[in-house]
Automatic annotation (TrEMBL):
CDD domains with a match to the protein in the record: START_STARD2_7-like
Alphabetical list of Pfam families matching this protein: START
Protein name: START domain
Keywords carried by this UniProt record: Membrane, Transmembrane, Transmembrane helix
The keyword Coiled coil belongs to this UniProt entry's keyword annotation: no
Ranges where the START domain occurs: 155-344
C-alpha cells in the first residue's frame, strides 16, 4: 500500500495525468456534445432504423475480439495504454536515477548545518565569479536574435495592436528543437529609456502590475558591473504547479541605448526541489532606446523596447502556445498601465528601490561589438535578399500556370483557331 501511495505522490505521475486530461477531456466533451445535439435533432425515421438494426448492434457489442468494432476498440485502447505506460516508466526511471544519485552519499551532519555550509560555500564561489554570470556572449546572442536573426529566421506574426499611448507588435519562431522564440516591439509614448530601464528592473514594484510574481529575492549583486542574481517564484494556472527561476541579469549601455540581458543561471546555494518546479532554460532580454513620437512633432519623446524571450517551462508546446496567444494582449495592457503608474510614483525626490539603483549601474558597451554585429547583419540581409531574388526569378508558380491553362482552354476550345493552337502547343511539349 505504501508503494502504491508513493507511486501516485510522485510529481511526474501527476503531471503525466494532467497532460492526458488536457488532451483527452476536451475531445470527449466535444464528442458527447455532438452526440447529444445529433440525437436531439434526429429525424423520426431513425427510430425505425434503430429497431431494425438493434439485433445486429447487440451482436457487434457482444462479439469476440475477432470481429470488427470491438477489435478496433481494443486495438486503440491497447495503443493508448502502451503509450501512457511508456511515458510513466521513462519519467519514473529518470526520477529514480536522480534519487539514487542524491542518496548515494549520506551525511551525518544535520540538515540545517549542511544548508548553511552549502550556502556559504556557494556564496563565496559566486562572489568570485559574479562578473562571469552574464557575459558579452549573451549580449551577442541577443544581438543575433533581434538583428541578424530577423533575416535568417522565419517569424510568424502574432499581434499588431495599439492604444493611444502605446503600440505593440509580436512575432514567434518555432525551431525544430527547443522552445518557441518570441520577439516583440513595443513603443511607449511619453517615456524615457531611463524610466523604462528602471521599471523592468524594479522587483519591489513589479508585483503591483505582474500578478504572476509571487516571490522575489536578490541573492547576489555586484556594485561594479551591476550584475545581479535574483530568485523568482511565479504563479501558474490551476493545472500547473508554480515555477521557480534563478535569473542572472546585467545591463550594457551605448549612448542612450540600453542592452538588458536576463537568463537562467545555476545557483548551488538553492538546490532544486520537486515544488516549485525550476525553469533552467530561460532567456529574456531587450534593447531600450528613444525613438520619434508618432505625434509627428519630430521629438524623441517615445521609447522603443525590442524584446526576445524563450523558456522551457515543462509544459507541452501546443498548450504553452495557446496560453501565450490568449494572454498576450492582457499582459501587454497590464505592462503599459504598470509603466504609467511607475512614472507617477517616480516623482522628483522619491527614493529609488535597491533594484532600480542597480539598474543605473551599467557596463559601457564596446563599440566594435555593435559595429561588427551591424556589419554582419547587413551582410546577412544582402545575402538573404539576393537568394530570394534568385528564387523568385527562377521559380515557377504552378498555380497560375494551371489557372491560365484552364482559362485558355475554356476560351478557345470552341473555335478552329483555338483547336489549332492547342494541338500545336501539345506537339511542341511532346517533342521536348
Amino acid at each position: 500500500m505504501d508503494i502504491f501511495m508513493d507511486f501516485f505522490n510522485k510529481p511526474s505521475v501527476t503531471e503525466t495525468f494532467v497532460d492526458i486530461l488536457l488532451c483527452a477531456v476536451p475531445i470527449w466533451v466535444a464528442v458527447m456534445i455532438g452526440l447529444l445535439i445529433g440525437w436531439s435533432w434526429r429525424p423520426r425515421w431513425t427510430g425505425l432504423v434503430y429497431l431494425g438494426f438493434r439485433s445486429k448492434l447487440r451482436f457487434l457489442l457482444t462479439a469476440p475480439p475477432g470481429f470488427g468494432a470491438r477489435r478496433i476498440w481494443l486495438a486503440f485502447t491497447a495503443l493508448s495504454v502502451f503509450s501512457v505506460c511508456r511515458t510513466l516508466w521513462s519519467r519514473l526511471g529518470s526520477s529514480n536515477k536522480k534519487l539514487s544519485v542524491s542518496g548515494s552519499a549520506p551525511s551525518s551532519k544535520p540538515v540545517g548545518e549542511e544548508e548553511e555550509e552549502s550556502f556559504s560555500r556557494a556564496s563565496d564561489k559566486i562572489t568570485e565569479k559574479e562578473q562571469d554570470v552574464v557575459t558579452e556572449k549573451d549580449l551577442e546572442h541577443l544581438l543575433y536574435l533581434l538583428e541578424a536573426g530577423n533575416a535568417n529566421m522565419e517569424w510568424q506574426s502574432m499581434m499588431d495592436k495599439s492604444t493611444p499611448n502605446m503600440s505593440y507588435q509580436a512575432w514567434r519562431h518555432e525551431p525544430d528543437t527547443g522552445p518557441v522564440v518570441y520577439r516583440s516591439r513595443t513603443v511607449f509614448e511619453d517615456a524615457t529609456p531611463d524610466i523604462v530601464r528602471d521599471f523592468f528592473w524594479d522587483d519591489e514594484f513589479r508585483p503591483k502590475w505582474d500578478p504572476m510574481l509571487a516571490y522575489f529575492k536578490t541573492l547576489e549583486e555586484d556594485p561594479k558591473t551591476g550584475t545581479t542574481i535574483v530568485h523568482w517564484i511565479k504563479k501558474f494556472p490551476f493545472f500547473c504547479s508554480d515555477r521557480e527561476y534563478i535569473i542572472g541579469r546585467r545591463i550594457w549601455e551605448c549612448g542612450k541605448k540600453y542592452y538588458a540581458v536576463t537568463k537562467g543561471v545555476p545557483y548551488q546555494a538553492l538546490p532544486k526541489r520537486d515544488k516549485p518546479r525550476r525553469v533552467e532554460l530561460y532567456f529574456s532580454s531587450w534593447i531600450i532606446k528613444a525613438v520619434e513620437s508618432r505625434k509627428g512633432d519630430g521629438q524623441m519623446t517615445a521609447c522603443e523596447v525590442s524584446l526576445v524571450h524563450y523558456e522551457d517551462m515543462g509544459i507541452p508546446k501546443d498548450v504553452a502556445k495557446l496560453g501565450v496567444r490568449h494572454g498576450m494582449w492582457g499582459a501587454v495592457k497590464k505592462l503599459n498601465s504598470g509603466l504609467r503608474a511607475y512614472q507617477t510614483a517616480r516623482k522628483p525626490g522619491t527614493s529609488l528601490s535597491r533594484s532600480a539603483q542597480m539598474a543605473s549601474i551599467t557596463t559601457k558597451l564596446n563599440m566594435d561589438l555593435v559595429e561588427t554585429s551591424g556589419a554582419e547583419e547587413e551582410e546577412r540581409r544582402h545575402a538573404v535578399e539576393n537568394a530570394r531574388k534568385q528564387k523568385d526569378q527562377f521559380s515557377v508558380d504552378w498555380k497560375w500556370i494551371v489557372v491560365g491553362g484552364v482559362a485558355l482552354a475554356c476560351g478557345l476550345h470552341s473555335s478552329a483557331i483555338g483547336k489549332a493552337l492547342m494541338v500545336g502547343a501539345g506537339q511542341r511539349l511532346a517533342r521536348r
